[in-house]
Write a structure and sequence with these properties.
Low-confidence stretches: 538-552
Shape: globular
Strand order of the largest sheet: 16-13-15-14-18-19-17
Number of helices: 21
Largest sheet: 7 strands, antiparallel
Length: about 550
């Protein structure tokens, strides 16, 4: 490691860190996991990335590309050299408004990109709630989606081209190729490139029927590798196997992205319900009205917001004490057109006796308050007092919409049988509702409850033909279930894909392939404790969480 550090510091123009305090800051992401990295590199440019990857490969050090670490399943933590793209490699490289595409570096923040695009009437459509910090590289690694996926799909639907660096130093430009163009690449004079193109085609051909059989038939499916993107159609784009690979196959250097026109007008209907399951049951008839989004806010979030001085002003649209509110948004060429859609939904719900209040909101400022309340839901939940917190481990499983009420009902009843409270929020339109059991992961009994709930949810998802992950990926929490979910043949194909792109196994190991059990490397765990250290200035004790600095 001394030689590795010395060579990195010599070769990298950007920032390099090996000290425990800095690495401690990179030992966690937004998940329940924590692993101390081996090193940190913040590259200034692509030359730095190449030098870092080459040096890591030379010394057999694992490699973990990372954005803003908003991932909820532990994709961004590992015993590896972390490459952080957010400080320097965050530029918009080229924008073509006429053809509606943009070329960016991986560290570009979504909201900052969209602020620039808005001036051209365009948007990069996937819109996770963490958009004010989530980076494009992270969104591609995770195959993110968001509020309006019902009309825009997921990140994989909008990546046109990528340039990637593999752990052996191979650099590739991945773009859509016709069958003839693809075969030419498979016979290229570049032996490594030919090996990848030809090898990947053989994997798909050998497993085509099983891929068709085993992959869930729901739009929100971001688990394993995207092999199902290659079983239909003549043209292939290997960017689609890199997107959603969670840093296990290679490093993104840049990407060319598809852009969508900004909607001209938006109006929302906020349907209030006295029962949570009645609200979830209303999703299917709501979808017949072709909304752009259907989001759920439950009673717990409303209650927490009403007690919060900064969020209380956002609750003006809430009438009475609903157990759930469905926020339903409509696009329109004119405000009148969008409003007519929202009012038609309100009338239909009232006629069907679904809900009790249906405020229609057309003012942009008032709509923004509703969305702010929805986006602040996670922060409100995590600020709950006590050791028990809403934990992410089954939060984004996706099932067919018609099965959603039954799925949620059975999860709630099972958690109740374990004496575990549950908070529900976010998407409803595509069969994904974020379900967070409230647990204390410093307590072994609650850790055992987490594993039991996870197994129960897994069985239900399989029964209903759903996806283990609808948008948050596999990481360290769901990778252990991939082989059981897909079966040995598909999981063996995943292994072949991993070995093809990353033969030395350096890229983000123990994610997707060969994972540890889901309760390994927990940020807290039964041995968690606060550590007391002393600093000389100011002269007072400073309490620092073990969860941040790993002090024992």
């Amino acid at each position: 490691m001394e030689n590795f550090e010395q060579e990195l510091r010599t070769r990298i123009k950007g920032d390099v860190a090996f000290d425990r305090a800095t690495l401690g800051l990179y030992s966690t992401d937004a998940s329940i996991y924590q692993i101390m990295p081996k090193a940190l590199v913040i590259p200034r440019d692509e030359a730095d990335v190449r030098a870092a990857v080459e040096t890591a490969a030379k010394y057999n050090v694992n490699i973990l590309p990372r954005g803003a670490a908003t991932s909820l399943n532990g994709q961004c933590v590992g015993s590896a050299m972390v490459i952080d793209f957010t400080k320097y490699m965050n530029k918009i490289l080229e924008l073509n408004p006429k053809e509606r595409w943009v070329r960016v570096q991986p560290g570009v923040v979504l909201d900052e990109l969209n602020a620039v695009l808005a001036g051209h009437g365009l948007v990069f459509a996937p819109d996770p709630a963490t958009g004010n910090r989530a980076t494009i590289g992270g969104m591609m690694g995770n195959n993110s989606s968001g509020t309006r996926s019902i009309i825009y799909g997921i990140t994989n639907d909008h990546v046109l081209e990528t340039r990637v660096l593999l752990s052996d130093g191979t650099e590739m430009t991945l773009e859509e190729l016709s069958a003839e163009e693809y075969d030419r690449q498979a016979k290229s004079d570049d032996k490594r490139q030919a090996q990848i193109y030809s090898g990947f085609k053989k994997i798909i051909q050998a497993n085509r029927d099983e891929i068709e059989k085993k992959y869930p038939k729901v739009m929100r499916r971001v688990q394993g590798y995207n092999l199902d993107s290659f079983i239909n159609g003549e043209s292939w784009n290997l960017s689609k196997i890199m997107v959603g690979s969670e840093g296990t196959l290679g490093v993104f250097l840049e990407a060319k992205l598809n852009l969508e026109p900004l909607p001209k007008n938006k109006v929302m209907c906020t349907a209030h319900f006295t029962q949570l399951l009645k609200a979830i049951g209303a999703v299917e008839p709501i979808l017949q009205h072709s909304p752009s989004a259907v989001e759920i806010v439950d009673a717990d979030i409303i209650a927490l917001a009403r007690k919060n001085l900064s969020l209380f002003p956002l609750c003006g649209f809430v009438q009475g004490n609903p157990q759930a509110i469905l926020v339903v948004e409509f696009f329109g060429q004119t405000e009148q057109q969008a409003r007519q859609k929202a009012e038609a939904l309100a009338a239909d719900l009232k006629k069907k006796k679904l809900g009790y209040a249906y405020p229609v909101i057309s003012e942009a400022a008032e709509q923004a308050k509703v969305w702010d309340l929805r986006k602040n839901g996670l922060g409100l939940m995590l600020g709950m007092k006590g050791d028990r917190k809403p934990m992410a481990f089954i939060e984004d499983s996706c099932v067919p919409v018609k099965m959603l009420p039954e799925y949620v009902d059975r999860i709630l009843k099972f958690c109740s049988s374990c004496n575990v409270p549950v908070i529900i929020y976010a998407h409803a339109s595509v069969g994904t509702i974020h379900i967070r059991p409230v647990l204390n992961l410093k307590d072994q009994e609650d850790i055992d409850c987490m594993k039991a709930i996870s197994e129960f949810a897994f069985d239900l998802v399989c029964k209903y033909g759903g996806s283990l992950s609808g948008e948050h990926g596999d990481g360290r929490v769901r990778s252990p279930k991939l082989e059981r979910f897909f079966g040995l043949q598909i999981y063996s194909a995943f292994r072949e894909v991993k070995k093809l792109f990353d033969p030395a196994g350096l890229m983000n190991p123990n994610v997707i392939i060969d994972p540890n059990p889901m309760d390994h490397n927990l940020r807290y765990g039964t041995k968690y404790k606060l550590s007391l250290i002393h600093i000389s200035e100011p002269t007072r004790p400073l309490y620092i969480s073990y969860a941040v600095f790993c002090l024992k």
